[in-house]
Amino acid sequence: MKNPPTTWKDLLKPEYKGQVAIVNSPAVAGDAFAAVWSAALANGGSLDNIMPGLRFFQKLKDVGNFNPIIANPAQIASGETPIVIEWDYLNIAYKKQYPDIKAVVSVPADGKFANYYCQAISAYAPHPNAAKLWMEYLYSDLGQLEYLAGYVHPARYAAMSAAGKIPPGLAKDLPPASEYAGVHFPTLAQINKASAIVVANWDKMVGGV
Fold it and tell me: Where in the chain is the domain with CATH 3.40.190.10?
């Protein structure tokens, strides 16, 4: 693409006719759900109000820019879905997997939304101290770099970047740490509330995937 989008507002430009896709319905796919919430944050919504995100995708459909194809790596590589809204670490991996397409991965300048994977030690673990040692490794500098090698942003990413602990060879494959400033993380209660709204409204407002 000559002018890859960098904001949610960009996606409404006529030059992106039929080009903007997500990976599935946000009623069933976490990254598509995150796309709607990110759009909400960029369009007057909040972690307590996801409806502006649904209205944004409705507008995206109305102007003809929304591509209802379920995007996957094959569609991305073929160019069938030129713009795909998906978790950054997955898009970075596709960029490395398909170098010929010269993909650009952007963190939107507006509407920065994130979510997290949880880890815990079972109360019934046969060897809880071994599990604790594993956790200590995961949150050590070395363990956090293992996550970054898979393009996933670990919990200590910003602090390690500020301390200069991310090797240049690894950092060059990732968006700058500064682009993640101001990212919004929802609570479980907010997720449950927003999910119910999306499930109830996506098909009648947007649909297609």
Answer: 9-114+183-205
